[in-house]
Every structure is written in C-alpha cells, then in structure tokens.
Fold:
Amino acid sequence: MNQITPVLLSGGSGTRLWPVSRKSFPKQFAPLIGERTLFQASALRLSGPRYGAPVVMTNADFRFIVTEQLAEVALDPAAILIEPAGRNTAPAVLAAALYLAQTDPDAVMLVAPSDHVVPDAEAFGRAVDQGLPLARAGRIVTFGIQPTRAETGYGWLEVEGDATDGPAPLRRFVEKPDADRAQAMLADGRFLWNAGIFLFSAATMIAAFRAHAPEFVDPVQAALDQARPDLGFLRLAPEPWNGLPDLSIDYAVMEKSDALSVVRFADHWSDLGGWDAIWRENQIGAPAPDGVVTDARSTAIDCRDVLLRSEHDDMQVVGIGLSNVMVVATNDAVLVADMDRAQDVKQAVAALKSKGARQAETFRRDHRPWGWFETLVMADRFQVKRIVVHPGAALSLQSHVHRSEHWIVVSGTARVTVDDTVTLVTENQSIYVPLGAVHRMENPGKVPMVLIEVQTGVYLGEDDIIRYEDVYSRT
Structure:
C-alpha cells in the first residue's frame, strides 16, 4: 500500500502569539508546549508506517531552520519547496500537488499546518485511516474537531448527517462566528471546528483547482517548471509566483467543491491561536490551582485565571492580585492583556509596526544558516553582539563599507580570514577586522564557537555587507 505524503505548511507568522512569535521567527519554530517545537512535533506526528517522507512548504528565511529542526528529530524530508513570496495556502497546496504529480498523480497528500497540538498521534492516525479510502476514490477529506466550547476564533464545519461513526458529507463552511452564533452551533450538534487539515490525491486537487480556481494553475505550474535546485532546496521561480492572488485553500477551492467529506476527530486538538490557548493547554489533565499558569521565571500572588510567562532567564515576572490576565515577557517586549482579548494581540503588532518599532517583527536574536547572533548593546556609533557558530559552519566571505569589527573568542576556536591572512583564534584571544577588509569567520571544531563582536562605524546596519562567497547561496 502506498504511503501518505505529509505536506507541512510552515511559512506563517503567528502574530496572535506575539511577543514570542514574530515574523522573523514565528510560533511553529518555538517550543511553546513541551521541549520540542511545534514544527518538530507536527513532523513527528506525521511520521511512521502510514506516512512517507514529508514535503515542506516554507520561505527562504526559514529554510535552514526547517532543515536544522528536522535533523534534530532525525527526520529526512522528501523535498523542501521555497515559496518566493507569501501568497497564503492556496498556491502552496497546489505547488505541492503538482510537485508530487510529476512522479505519481495518484499520490495521497495529507496537508497540515505545522503549528497545531495533537497529543495523541495514533488517535489522529486512525482518523486519517477513516478518510483514506475516500481520498483514494477522489474525495477531498477535511478533519473536523469535536467542539468543547463556543469558540469564536475558529471557522466551523456543518456536517450533512452524522459524523460520529465515520466520514460524512460536508454541507458548508462557516466563517468565524460571533459568540451567540457559536453557542447555537455548539448546542446544535451538527457543527465541528475546522482544523484546516486536508487529505486528497494530487490528481484530485489539481482537478479541483482547474474547476474552481483556474487562475492559479498555469502560474504555479510555471513556477515549478522554472524552479531552481539550491543546496537541497527547490526554489520556485519568483516571476510567475509573485503575480498570484493571496488566497487560502478554503476560499479558492474547498468552499466551492461538492466533493468534500468530513472525518470527526474527538480527541484533543489545538491550533494555539492565542495565549488563551496556551493557558488552556497547560491545564490539560491537571488543572492549575485557581487557574494560575506560571513558568519557572514567574510568580503569582493572590491571582486567579492568569498566565504569567517569561522567555528570558534574566526576566522575572510577578503578578499580584490579577484576574483573567495574561502577561508574556521576552528580553525586549512585554505583553499585558485581558485573557478575553487574546485574539486582539495582532492589533498590538500592527500598532508597533506603524510606529516603526523593531519588536513588531524581529527579535534581538537573529537566526542564520551558520548559527545565530544577538545584539547586546546598540549605540550611536558602536554595537556589541554575541555570535554563535555551529560546528563546521562558516560565515560568508565579505567586507563592509561603513564599519570595522573586533572579535573576541569566548568559547571554541575560530578560523578567521582577513584579506590574505588566515589565523586560528582560540578562547580569550581577539582579532581586528579593519574597515573594507575582506574577511570570513569559520568554526573548524566539533562544538559551537562563541565570540563577542564589537562593531564601530558611522553605519551598523545588516545591509552593509558585500558578499564574495557564501556556502549557503545567499544573495
């Protein structure tokens, strides 16, 4: 029996979980629940005998994060397709279908976001088993979650008949409702939450696009035909892709198709669509006393129904006499909000973005294919960074027009090129890179290399880089 190919969608930004989730490093790559990231947990959930190697849809900024996180859980992807620009889920799903159809038009795909929580992977696998015969017969199968509350943050599905004993036809999609409508649907019994997870064959989905959203087919096919292999990734061509509409798969195809079936999933599921969901997840199985959810760096005094969370070792969060409040702190931003306003956190991101605040989209820590750096001090004419380089990794051969750099190695060994001179710099040693010098830093060792960089100059932006060689093919 042919295995199901998981297609993991991992290009979203997750603004409702700001300040932990930001455009530069969104929620799917963070360990919000447990020690593994949501992306890793999703990939592991869709692995095993039922499934083949996954196809991952992501963007250029996240491509090395994807490979690094898959390697950490010993999973090897079938392909990683790089979207030139975010155009929502419709073109991403079609690109994956066209890619798989090149070798097997009957390939069965399970398309899933990479930021959901499903603790019982085997229970979800049994739900997939229920939908598989229908997918092979040309149906599009969606998964509906048995609702437990009148949720206004989810779309809903109205089932034709009874979905309690196996798949049932889908009558219609329902947009995110107001509170009264959600309560009525919860009481009705024929409505399920829309999980946004779909099972179908590649040929079925391509035919559905031709019937309901034909404007996508030729541009996405062209983007795939003109795709360029790059270090194990497949970069879809930007010219045909960038003109595509920004549309979800639900609007483009699903709401127009009459070939949809629903499989009911009654076990626990969450899309972690806000900090209220994180609060609920931390009470599964063992409700917190008085509804107080804290981490090791947070303290609650005389509080009730609160979430207090700190993401930084040097940041202690203390709440006194709070009720129905969430407080989330990082090393550069603090969110304080009423728990009932969890869906409005995205408004904070928009407000910060409009005033030009860096915290709207980026962190102090910037992830790169060779490791990461973190800005420790930023002043008018100097900047101090901590830089961590993975074993065997190397920064690009580069120069700067506006700044010079001083490097002090604090852990490991660096191989440093400055113009024609190559030097090994070990712990407690330093080296100076003059303005305009062509230079490179490498880690030749087997442990991470850590150094402190002091930049001085009239301009310290990350765009003051002229690259001459780069093992990661960055432009």
